[in-house]
Design brief:
Elements lengths: L1 E5 L3 E7 L14 E7 L1 H11 L3 E8 L4 H9 L3 E7 L5 E7 L5 E6 L8 H8 L7 E5 L5 H10 L3 E5 L5 H7 L5 E5 H11 L10 E5 L5 E5 L5 E4 L12 H14 L4 H15 L12 H6 L3
Parallel strand pairs: 1-4, 1-8, 2-6, 4-5, 8-9, 9-10, 10-11
Antiparallel strand pairs: 2-3, 6-7, 11-12, 12-13
The structure holds alpha-D-ribofuranose.
The site of alpha-D-ribofuranose has 15 residues, from strand 2, helix 1 and strand 7.
């Protein structure tokens, strides 16, 4: 089967700082590096490195050939990435010494994907394929609706979190990824606990405490523990987790096994500086000792 990802593609400008900047503060970075990023691109690379066939649906600007080429080098099918007149998205990522980050996003081409492009891409999908989206592109609700109509398994990673954006896709999705704070915000906005959202599977990432899976229909909960690592840079770890979970499900793994493998991938990822370019492959994930 295949994973279809309506996803963002960014140039990540990553600055290592002594601490995250305060309002009005000027701060010199110790290091600077540029990576391929975007929550969408990170998920595509993670799922491809985990062995899935991943078709990315997205857009880059006139200067974005490098990003499309790099995704292709990482094994992602890039036929449905358009090159348009709007500049490629970028992110300014500040990372402190404890690995925490702060991100400024310029969406650019990520929010200029056309309905035609989306329709053409998804017309090549087969029932049972997975479709994933995050909140960094346009057309999320349209894609979710199309995906459901085509018999795809529709997944949504609610990041960057916006309660309205999640509510727009909720009726059409089978799998929802959020962190603990986002789960609380969504519950506040909808008045519904995760098991009552009408979504078959909800995964809540809990940072150093691991991750929780809630099976909507039965309300059954299972928890996967995090692994003991010292974080250097947490940027992209959640995206890596999501990509690996989807790749596991794509290979028919039971949810707990897919989440356990994804937890190992995310644990390795937080020990590395950078985003898509440093996402571990399946062999590294399987061989890692924690
Ligand atoms: O989740 C990390 C990602 O968020 C970065 O790669 C950045 O581009 C932003 O989209």
């Amino acid at each position: 089967m295949a994973i279809w990802n309506l996803g963002s593609i960014n140039a990540d400008m990553v600055y290592s700082l002594p601490h995250l900047p305060q309002a009005g503060e000027t701060l010199a970075a110790g290091e600077f590096a540029q990576f391929l990023g975007g929550k969408g691109a990170n998920m595509s690379v993670a799922a491809a490195r985990a062995g899935s066939h991943v078709c990315h649906i997205g857009a880059v600007g006139p200067e974005g050939t490098w990003a499309r080429d790099r995704l292709m080098e990482y094994g992602v099918d890039t036929r449905h990435i358009a090159q348009i007149d709007t500049p490629t998205g970028h992110a300014i990522v500040a990372v402190d010494q404890g690995g925490e980050n702060q991100i400024i996003l310029f969406p650019g081409a990520n929010r200029a994907i056309t309905q035609d492009q989306l329709g053409q891409a998804l017309s090549a999908a087969s029932a049972g394929d997975i479709l994933v989206m995050q909140n960094e592109t346009n057309l999320q609700a349209e894609a979710a609706r199309m995906g459901r109509d085509l018999g795809l398994q529709v997944a949504y990673a609610a990041a960057p979190f916006d309660a309205k954006a999640v509510q727009a896709v909720l009726p059409h999705i089978d799998l929802l990824f959020m962190n603990e704070v986002e789960a609380g915000q969504l519950q506040e906005a909808t008045g519904l606990a995760p098991e009552a959202l009408g979504v078959a599977d909800v995964i809540i990432t809990l940072g150093a405490k691991g991750a929780r899976h809630i099976h909507g229909p039965s309300g059954e909960v299972q928890e996967i523990s995090a692994l003991p690592v010292t974080p250097l840079d947490t940027t992209g770890a959640g995206d890596t987790f999501t990509g690996y979970v989807l790749a596991g499900l794509d290979r028919n793994m039971p949810m707990a096994q897919a989440m356990a493998q994804a937890t190992r991938a995310a644990a390795l990822m937080v020990t590395r500086h950078g985003t898509a370019d440093v996402i571990p492959d399946l062999k590294e994930v399987q061989d890692a000792r924690f």
